[in-house]
Amino acid sequence: MRFRHLVVPRRAARPLTIASVLLLMGTALFAAGALLLPASGPPAAPVSAGGTGTERSEHRTESRIAALQSRLRRLPEDYDAWAQLGIAYTEHAQRTADPRYYPKADKALTRSMSLHPRDNHLAQLGRGALAAGRHDFAAALAHARTAVRINPHHAASYGVLADAHLQLGHYEQSFDATQKMVDLLPATPSLARASYAWELRGDADLATELMRRALGAAGSPADAVFARHHLALLTLRQDPEEADRVIRSGLRAAPREPALLEARARAHLARGDTRKALRDYTAAAARVPRPAHLLAIGELHESLGHHRRAEAQYDLYRDQLRLLDEAKVAADAEAVLFEADHGDPGRAVRLGRTAVKEQPFLASQDAYAWALHRAGRDEEALAFADRALHLGTLNPLHHFHRGMIHSALGNEAAARRDLDAALDIDPRFHPLHAPAARAALSQNGPVT
Predict the structure, then answer these.
(1) Does 112 share its domain with 187?
(2) Segment Disordered: which positions (predicted)?
(3) Structural domain tally of the chain?
(4) Nearest-CA neighbor of 439 among 397, 400, 402?
(5) Are residues 297 and 356 in the same domain?
(6) 60: burial class by Cβ within 10 Å (0-12, 13-18, 19+)?
(7) Same domain, 265 and 388
(8) Rounded distance between C-alpha atoms, residue 35 and residue 309, angstroms
(9) Burial 426-439 (b: 16+ CB within 10 A, else e)
């Protein structure tokens, strides 16, 4: 597949904080954490800096919600305030990992649209972000297109558009929308998306440079926390010392920030220090119980033989999935992989089939492939595993999954190539699967 070059202008960015973008459009994700990146991106929570990090951001969001509620009691016909309230609820759901705020957001945005059904740009942005948060990317795309039509010069509209196209597997259109967002406003939100676009295409160097520029363009402490988190993860493989510097810098300003604690946990894992990784993941989950953090804790415990503790974490993870389902959030790739690895492979296949149909992004293709493999359907699985890697993304888990599928099919040379690739990208990419990759390679020997 050919892609046009994503050009990033070198002119200075006009400041635009993550908080202001959230105010305009809410958040498009529930697992990835921030509207700045597609849902398959690394977990993050854009927050305000300061000793309490996320706590201050939550307080500000709650204060804004209270102020908007007070205004609407006095002016119930204020459609703009209803739209802002819906976006604030969406943001709060994301910040707190509490999807029960999504129905509140839906009601507020519906009210805004009923009061002002034509050319309601803010409500359309909010509806797009809410739909994306619920993983209904077809609806998110429709709302984003409407928002762009109403106001084609608004950068955040193209962010929702880019995210929706990406999750629907429209890669060219997503990268075009990202480029338009960069052209309109080369600030942290657009530069972070551009970074992720190149990371997906396997260009780690350009992705890292763009994320450094996203950090340099940060217009607020919240922007800086977000960019530091992703920059740390990008540099962790090539330059661990830079990753450590970036994480330490962020934690000095916000020592309890979950996104930075999660980044430090992954840095500890890269060095093989599971004890410290568990400590930081646990601290992050205590602040905001994101499903990804709960699952990471469970799999770390399982890798250490702490089976009872692992099951307790998996139960907490299942509780979070139930909350998401009640809030009409569709299952994503992570939920499919969890079911394949720790639940019922048959159910994983059913969830994966739906995910590929409704959200055919790379991560969904990979998760469905793994579910099919775990269900013993390897010939079907291989085609989806190939699709998960067709952009050239340097994803060790995707290579591991395809390698094991090849092995099950008797394609030993292809299996060894993929398993070697997974461990070359990251020798400790997963506490359970990295050892499985090494064990499989030791049985079959090196590629000849």
Answers:
(1) yes
(2) 43-62
(3) 2
(4) 400
(5) no
(6) middle
(7) no
(8) 33
(9) bebbbbebbeebee
Rounded-to-10 torsion of CA 193, 4, 425, 382: 110
Instruction: Look at residues 303, 338, 358 and tell me which one is the last residue of a structural domain.
Output: 303
Question: Closest Cα partner for 110 from 148, 82, 145?
Answer: 82
Q: What is the pTM of this model?
A: 0.87
User: Which of 303, 318, 341 is the last residue before a domain boundary?
Assistant: 303
pLDDT (tens, 9 = 90+) of the chain, 448 residues, equals 344 555 554 443 333 333 333 333 333 332 233 343 333 343 333 323 233 345 556 677 889 999 999 999 999 999 999 999 999 999 899 888 899 999 999 999 999 999 999 999 999 999 999 999 999 999 999 999 999 999 999 999 999 999 999 999 999 999 999 999 999 999 999 999 999 999 999 999 999 999 999 999 998 877 888 999 999 999 998 899 999 999 999 999 889 999 999 999 999 999 999 999 999 999 999 999 999 999 999 999 999 999 999 999 999 999 999 999 999 999 999 999 999 999 999 999 999 999 999 999 999 999 999 999 999 999 999 999 999 999 999 999 999 999 999 999 999 999 999 999 999 999 999 999 999 999 999 986 544 3
Domain span holding position 416: 350-444
240 in the same domain as 102: yes
Please state the length of the chain: 448
